[in-house]
From TrEMBL:
Residue intervals of the Fe-containing alcohol dehydrogenase-like C-terminal domain: 190-390
Record InterPro entries: ADH_Fe/GldA, ADH_Fe_C, ADH_Fe_CS, BDH-like
Top-rank lineage group of the source organism: Bacteria
Record-given protein name: NADH-dependent butanol dehydrogenase A
Pfam families from the UniProt entry: ADH_Fe_C, Fe-ADH
Keywords: Oxidoreductase
Domain annotation Alcohol dehydrogenase iron-type/glycerol dehydrogenase GldA: ranges: 10-179
Keyword Oxidoreductase on entry: yes
Length: 397
């Protein structure tokens, strides 16, 4: 196990009927609030009315950054930061899924960064050491873990880039996790968000660092819990415990708990971010498509033990021949995503031909360290082969 720091100070307020704590959570930073939200889901499910009524009764002044896109745009970050500067905002309050929260985090940082161009901030990647406005979030979709981590992922359609960046000041101070706020998430987004949780767990799980039993056993448990509760939530969207378990899994999958002590680079996320950058697809769906094909591509003599362990611990596979067990584990994941009605080929999400594969594969290499530090290092030809394998349905056993 590698050395690590684990210092994640977000004050999590988990559970239903806790919204009345919001004024106190915000007031520690001031009374001028920037509400950040997406395309209107919070207006449809009544959360917007509940928050704005409560805050105006308590004497808060509110400004709004509305219409944050899934795969949030750098131009929207600029719009939000301009509002912060113009009105002397004290605290940023994103209400939504990962896109809204990421945008809020980027707004909070850019507003105080002293930079002229928000894209400059994003290009700094994980090295942002400057200040940010305080951030309080209300999560409405279990997926990214953005509610309890320092990262944000921002897209620039002009340059066809989608990049993660972040720094300590971008960690939310308080996050409200009320599972009832996710009851209205539709089947597609529930499946996509849960696939994202599973991907975060797998990206952390498959690592070259050994001696990490605690992290690995926690991660297997979180994977099993996510799979079981995903099945329930897809059938019964208002099942409180299923939504609660997905929500808590999303937070724990990417708040450091399962990744500390390991290091290395993720594999599927850098490849997926290029799919989203070029084709604006749903992040979790892109990951669901890529992950089984990636697993099959990197299965070899050195990795077979880890894939066989994953097959046994996550899917209960009892096959004793490691290579066959590993392949059965990959097939189980693929079949599970299909059962959840996730489109499992690139043409199904609008990527009909291979014309951008070269450029996307090159960017995946340029924008990350998958070529050197991934579980199995991936060169451009590997990324291309994985994209190509995702063009048609797959059979792994
Ligand atoms: O925009 P609204 O109207 O709110 O609708 C959203 C959006 O259309 C809808 N939605 C959210 N909550 C809802 C709801 N619909 C009904 N009821 C609710 N309660 O769901 C759609 C998708 O929302 P989005 O925020 O885009 O989804 P998600 O949470 O999956 O976030 C994806 C973004 O996060 C980035 C992704 O790359 C992508 O840009 N990521 C951020 C990470 C981080 N900060 O740590 C890590 C991740 O790996 C990921 O890269
Ligand atoms: Zn993700």
């Amino acid at each position: 196990m590698n050395n690590f720091n684990f210092h994640v100070t977000t004050d999590i307020r988990f559970g239903k009927d806790r919204l009345e704590e919001l004024p106190e959570a915000l007031a520690q930073f001031g009374k001028k609030v920037l509400l950040v939200y997406g395309g209107g889901s919070i207006k449809k499910n009544g959360l917007y009315d509940r928050v704005t009524t409560l805050l105006s009764e308590q004497g808060f002044d509110m400004w709004e950054l509305a219409g944050v896109e899934p795969n949030p745009r750098v131009q929207t970050v600029k719009r939000g930061a301009d509002l912060c500067k113009e009105h002397g905002i004290d605290v940023v309050l994103p209400i939504g899924g990962g896109s809204t929260i990421d945008c809020g985090k980027a707004v909070a940082a850019f507003a105080l960064s002293g930079m002229d161009d928000p894209w400059e901030l994003v290009l700094g990647r994980r090295g942002y050491t400057g200040p940010a406005l305080p951030i309080v979030t209300i999560l409405t979709l279990a997926a990214t873990g953005s509610e309890m981590n320092v990262g944000a992922v921002i897209s620039n359609p002009e340059t066809k880039q989608k990049l993660g960046f972040g720094g300590p000041s971008m960690l939310p101070s308080v996050s409200f996790l009320d599972p009832t706020n996710t009851f209205s998430v539709n089947h597609y987004q529930t499946a996509a968000g849960s696939a994202d949780i599973l991907s975060h767990l797998m990206e952390n799980y498959f690592s070259r660092v050994t001696g990490v039993d605690v992290q690995n056993r926690i991660t297997e448990g979180l994977m099993r819990a996510t799979i079981a509760n995903m099945r329930i939530a897809l059938k019964t969207p208002a099942d409180y415990d299923a939504r609660a378990n997905l929500m808590w899994a999303s937070t724990l999958a990417l708040n450091g708990l399962t990744g500390v002590g390991k290091g290395g680079a993720w594999s599927c996320h850098p490849m997926e971010h290029e799919l989203s950058a070029f084709y604006d697809i749903t992040h979790g769906v892109g990951l669901a498509i890529l992950t089984p094909c990636w697993m099959a591509h990197v299965l070899n003599e050195e990795t077979v033990f880890q894939f066989a362990t994953y097959a046994r611990e996550v899917w209960g596979i009892t096959e004793t021949v490691p290579e066959l067990a590993a392949k059965m584990g990959i097939q189980k994941l693929y079949d599970f995503f299909k059962e959840c009605q996730i489109p499992m080929t690139l043409p199904e999400v609008g990527i009909k031909d291979e014309r951008d594969f070269e450029a996307m594969a090159q960017q995946a290499i340029d924008h990350s360290s998958i070529a050197t530090a991934a579980f199995v290092p991936l060169q451009k030809a590997d990324v291309l082969a994985i994209y190509q394998a995702c063009m048609t349905e797959s059979q792994f056993v």
